[in-house]
Amino acid sequence: MAGRSSRRARGERRSRRNLTGLVTIPRAELGSLRAKMRRVRLELGRAVTRARIEADAGPGDGAPIFSRDELADAWKR
User: Could you tell me the pTM of the whole model?
Assistant: First the structure.
């Protein structure tokens, strides 16, 4: 009964009807799934970013392009 009272204190009262859609997985597996989701999201984010970069035509319109040295010189002035 100690478990029930602690659940009630946290506001986790659930009837048996609401438990039908829940599953239990081991904590280690949950951590593994979370890590995999992080990797997948990172990979997807990188793919989207790469596609945006490749789709960008660049400065165009005759915009000047400077090397690092040229930019450093310009900032010194």
Answer: 0.46
Q: Which residues contact 24 (CB under 8 A, 6 or more apart)?
A: none
Contact indicator for 41, 33 with CB cutoff of 8 Å: no
> What is the C-alpha separation between 27 and 56, in angstroms, rounded?
44
| Per-residue pLDDT reduced to its tens digit, 42-71 | 999 999 999 998 888 777 777 888 899 999
Q: Which residue has the tokens 């970013």?
A: 49
Q: How far apart are CA 40 and CA 32, in angstroms?
A: 12
Start-to-end CA span in the chain (Å): 76
